[in-house]
Structures
1.
Amino acid sequence: MTPITLITGASRGIGAATARLCAQHGHRVVINYARDAQAAEEVARQVRAAGGEALTVQADVSQEADVLRLFDAIDRHWGRLTGLVNNAGVVDVAARVEDYSMARLQRMFAINVFGSFLCAREAVRRMSTRHGGAGGAIVNVSSVAARGGGANQYVDYAASKGAIDTFTIGLSKEVAAEGIRVNAVRPGITDTEIHASGGQPDRAWNLASQIPMQRPGHPEEIAQAICWLLSDAASYTTGALLDVGGGR
């Protein structure tokens, strides 16, 4: 059976790299994006040029109606999902907790946490043998920041990823006997566009000296770990939090 894998936030960075790599491994790839249709279509073009199959679907994962529409589109186009990568996420400008607005906190947790819950809920409803599914795999993209805490910069982001770690462990136990494996990859500092969205486009390389390997990661290196966890090679792995952070 050809794997059908949804990757949220797949128009750039780790998500785009994962879409390309999954396609190379024979997955039909659903490229979800929130706003940048042109970037998503470019990733889809790359997948198709390499001989893969791609479907692009716009949806804001923090909105339940959008998530329902996203999964309905997959159902109608290809049928039951077999893989989910909860990759969509945001950061904000560096700030201390005492300066956070409620709007900032709501946005952070709505996308990074609630979006992952909503997508996982819909995936389980399709994958679980309890619901007539054939099983599947869910990979949540967390961060090593969940261990470090993000003091003086991104405590809210780190806390949202800490929630993802706990969510991964709990859900993995809940569905382990229903054919679904649930794991998380925790990237370290990775050279992607997300740093620019937080106002620090050069942050990855500026922090290279703090990384034991003395460089930031590449999106393709994180994608390798995600694709392994999706694959049958990881058939006895569930509830794992896999650090891919250059030793940090």
2.
Amino acid sequence: MKALNQQKTELLRNILFITLGSLLYALNFDLFLEPGGISSGGVSGIAMIIVYAAHPKFLTVGILNAMINIPLFLCGLKKIGRHFFFGSLYSTVLTSVFLDLFARILPVPAVEPLVAALFGGVFMGVSLGLVFLGNASTGGVDIVARLMKLKFRNFPIGKIILCMDLTIAVITGVVYRDFNNTLYSVIAMVVSSMALDRVVYGMDYSKVALIITEKYEAIATAIDGQLDRGVTLLKGQGYYKRQDKMVLLSAVKRKQLAELKELVMDIDPDAFIILQDAHQVLGDGFKRYDRNEL
């Protein structure tokens, strides 16, 4: 029963992330990117180029976005699984509908191209990150990037998308006959890549503490008992006096950081603490490894 409730909670969470991400993506595209001829990359960027160059009578960016994604969805179904497929299908249908809806009802603000590129990049990265956190994709190169991530596991997904989108940025400048469009598109894509990685990976940051102290036994016991965190003893040696020292290594949640520092200083005010950022800490007390995660 508990497992079933957990599955329902996760499903509702994914739907919420996908819905918000798809809405934000379409809103950002119609307000900042398309009016300035700034490519968002991916299939929507390709659709924007087609509409601008060919002026098809009955085809809109939203319709083209949905049409181009069909074969990529089939690929995603075979390689990644049903949950990702249906989540991505829901996201793309929603995005396509919102793209055409917002284009009809929203007034286009007059925004400087550089401002549009910067804000458009931030919102694009956040929107894609939300959809990815919902275990889905907006379609297009996002699916290709997700497939590539399974093979190149150490390469951040934001950088994978950026590499593929740069080509679309160049094509945008050629079609619009203005190299400024390419440059603004590149700015938006770089900012989007950083924002995307921040959303996807930034929520999983912890801290690694290195503690050099003479009272390592008492501090290790306190960390284990009060913070419920594991401690590893490392053997070290001071350079100046060549004295052997014990170094405590412990990974803690960000919210436990203040408590950790207070705990250590209460026991040994002379302790030396080094704190380092760490993300995707895997193991007991943290996340479990999942080969399908980003």
3.
Amino acid sequence: MSALVVSGVTASYGAGPVLRGVDLTVTEGVTAVLGSSGCGKTTLLRVVAGFLAPDSGTVSIAGREVAGAGRAVPPRRRNIGYVPQEGALFPHLTVAANIGFGLPRAERRHSVRIDEMLELVELPRDLADRFPHQLSGGQQQRVALARALAARPALVLLDEPFSSLDAGLREETGRAVARALRASKAAGVLVTHDQGEALSLADQVAVMAEGRFLQIAAPADVYLSPADEAVAAFLGHAVMLTGTLGPDQVAQCPLGAVRARGELPAGPVVLAVRAEQVRVSADTTLGTTATVLDVSFFGHDATIRVRLDTGEVLTARTPAGAIPLTGDRVGVLVDGDVVAFPGHAR
């Protein structure tokens, strides 16, 4: 039985459509709904949670239809957990009282379930008597997840729950939350605009743009085999270059000869070149010549933007060992094969 089935859902605010016939099935694990701000991902979460009624389509949770055809099951009866951006813990309640808030009174009086939840989200038992303001941001989000899981929901909805955390704490908390969801056997739907978060935490990634899903697949499939140019450009910030593909699957483009991934007919193609595939060399006799526009140094690596002599601007992600300076002339090469899509004859 699927934890969540969304079928043909449309939704709008006033006259403006936000969701345009959305279909999504979540069976187990973590599904990340990934998209830029305003694409409709939070609206979808609100429809699933019951905070917003869809204009059309149906929503089923654990095999039970909760929205559609005039049916609207209230949020509290949908057997879901919900973790908002800031956790929204009750400030006047202890950690234990927050976790036990949605439990039956008899179970709330005993600490066994609360102890289980603290262990599940990897927090020590001695935090149970603290108040939210005595916790770090990451600890607060774990308590919010423990509260959402305490009532044993079939589905947990997470609305950008790590967005307010700093980078290191965000990654640590995200991994702990993903482990807890999988250990509890509850399916999770994580709404995020962070590509790294979606690809590293989820079992399934649903890429959304303008109220529609462009691709729904495993993280590796979405990244390595994007369904179309829009997915490729969004994931990994690939630069799209036009070229001409020969029968040997080698394309001629502004970067010279590059090998295309997959099997496409000879003719015009669009190539998705990602930053990690671009190599910058101080030797201008190698590859295609370019000028360094700017360099962003991150310690472990650097991001270099270059402009080819033909005018195209590309980004290279390189190790920190040999970094050129702004204005340097360099050679640009491509490592490995490149994702390609059929182009249009001009």
4.
Amino acid sequence: MASQILICLLLVTVVGVAVDCNSEGDALNAWKSQLVDPNNVLQSWDPTLVNPCTWFHVTCNSENSVTRLDLGNANLSGYLVPQLGQLANLQYLEVFGNNLSGTIPTAIGNLTSLVSLNLQHNQFTGVIPTSLGNLISLSYLNLNGNKFSGIIPSDLFLLVQRGNLRVMNVSDNMFAGTVHRGNLTVTTIIQDPKAS
């Protein structure tokens, strides 16, 4: 009897440690908990699972670390949470065509493996955080069709000049300022549908 109790306690401890160590699942669950999901696209996001690699719209690498979130046109509303910055191996954050609002959390700048950030056609506001200049792997940035304001951070132009950021669409927002002559290569990638 004592050995059965010990085995049960060990199992509870192991399961508890696995759940506690799942920071990526916790980060995604923190995001899910504040989203409005009328079509139940996040129904499979079960925080009791050991890792989120079995959840729909989540892709993981061979080490069971989240590399991709595909939630475009999912009719979600809510906002991005700072905990998303804990997804160290995230390469694709695709949340276009939703009703997401608020600002981009500064913590998104921690996602140095990010290759594509697609936030187009949502209701995002505020300024683009300068921390996005830390996204050294970023090659595709689409912020089109939101309500961003202020100026485009010079740190993003540095990503363009270094050759990493190849597509940057910031059209249909409320930005102010000008693109300086020294940044002529940038003007070819800042797309404005009204100019065509």
